[in-house]
Amino acid sequence: MKYPIEKFKNIETPFYYYDFDILRDTLQNVKEEAGRHEGFRVHYAIKANANPKVLKIISEYGLGADCVSGGEIERSIECGFRPSQIVYAGVGKADWEIELSLDNDIFCFNVESLEELQIIQEIAVRKGKTANICFRINPNIGAHTHEKITTGLAENKFGIALEDMYKAIEAARTYSNIKFIGLHFHIGSQLLEMDDFIALCKKINELQDGLEEKGIHIQIINVGGGLGVDYDNPSENPIPNFKLYFDTYAQHLKLREGQEVHFELGRSITAQMGSLITKTLYVKQGTAKQFAIVDAGMTDLIRPALYQAHHKILNLSSKEAEKTYDVVGPICESSDVFDKAVRLNKVHRGDFVALQSAGAYGEIMASQYNCRRLPVGYSSDEL
Ligand code: LLP
Questions:
Q1: Please, which residues bridge with residue 65 across strands?
Q2: Rounded to an integer, what is the distance from CA 262 to the centroid of its chain?
Q3: pLDDT tens for residues 291-338?
Q4: N or C: which end of the chain has fewer CB within 10 A?
Q5: Residue minimizing CA distance to atom 24 of ligand 1
Q6: Using a 6 Å cutoff on CB, does residue 303 contact ligand 1?
Q7: Please, which contacts does 137-141 make with residues 24 or more away whose CB atoms are closer than 8 Å?
């Protein structure tokens, strides 16, 4: 990733910097690799980064949108996504969000409970609309990732239990304004090994055999997102291995005539194009260690504090010999630490520091704790 440091000097820090060349190369690669397989359709998971400048580029590549709130549906439509390519998931859809989805004729609701199905039916009847629905099935597969981003285990709140799937399909058939079109899954995020995706394919194949025995045909299999990125070596691996990912599904998922496979990729599309740029306020000598105190904090990038996530850190302003620092923010919380014992080119007050791979779940998860300003996102197109 290239950093136009001269231009950074005129911008208030901290801010997010998005390299749109990387974003475009990533999208081109996603399009090509998914395009090799018939019936593969990619949605971008808006939750990863909903900056309008970013969304406009992504929508230009023809991806659909995976939304989890009414706000995301509104934002994605404003930024050029077609309602007919919007899927909407979430365990707690509010009535106004269901109404908004029906008013905009979105493609599909990913329904997570029978209770929710009934409310969608009631609202659809009132509006004289038909809602396409997929059931989100909890496949009880343990994705090997951080516990806070595992979603497909029976103990998680997401989806309908496997044993209740037929009951749900039967219920959907009795509702006049509901059209059941498929099944939805999502097992977790930041998955780098294909084994978990292969386990999901096997589970789906079993389910499809069972459905077929009962004469039930589905059009859509939505396998969610989850492809991880290389947080340790972002410069060497700016683009995730989409070829391996799509080929894995093509090889292991047994599709029936006319079926589509939908993907909901978030992190793998936006993580590597973004860095959080922060300025060093002080270099403080503690009793046992040196602290580089920067002007970004956990309010700007919460992933290290929340998930013990590792973001590679670079000193953009210095080429002097490396020293070891704990890189910390100004927030009044001891968890406001970006990383410990990091080797950085010698740091001085005023140096620009980049926290890499922060384009996904960075800006969008920022908060105003401590009455701080929200970080702004700038793109390489505008700087
Ligand atoms: N589909 C569903 C139903 C999801 O729940 C998620 C993410 C995605 C797709 C997109 O997954 P991805 O391709 O980005 O892995 N804030 C956390 C990540 C939370 C992911 C939640 N669900 C983080 O910063 O690591």
A1: 44, 86
A2: 15
A3: 999 999 999 999 999 999 999 999 999 999 999 999 999 999 999 999
A4: C
A5: 361
A6: yes
A7: 137/162, 137/165, 137/183, 137/184, 137/185, 137/207, 138/162, 139/185, 139/187, 139/200, 139/203, 139/204, 141/187, 141/196, 141/199, 141/200, 141/203
SS3 355: strand
User: Can you tell me which residue has the tokens 């599904």?
Assistant: 249
How far is 164 from 16, CA to CA, in rounded Å?
A: 44
Does pLDDT of 147 surpass 70? no
184 lines ligand 1 (CB under 6 A): no
How long, in residues, is the chain? 383
- Helices 70-78 & 52-60, crossing angle to 10 degrees? 60
Torsion, CA 355, CA 358, CA 362, CA 364, rounded to 10: 140
- Residue that has been written with the tokens 């919460």 in this structure: 302
112 touches ligand 1 (CB under 6 Å): no
CA distance linking residue 187 with residue 191, whole number of Å = 9
Kindly indicate the confidence band of residue 157, based on its pLDDT and cuts at 50, 70 and 90: confident
Ligand 1 near 264 CB (within 6 A): yes
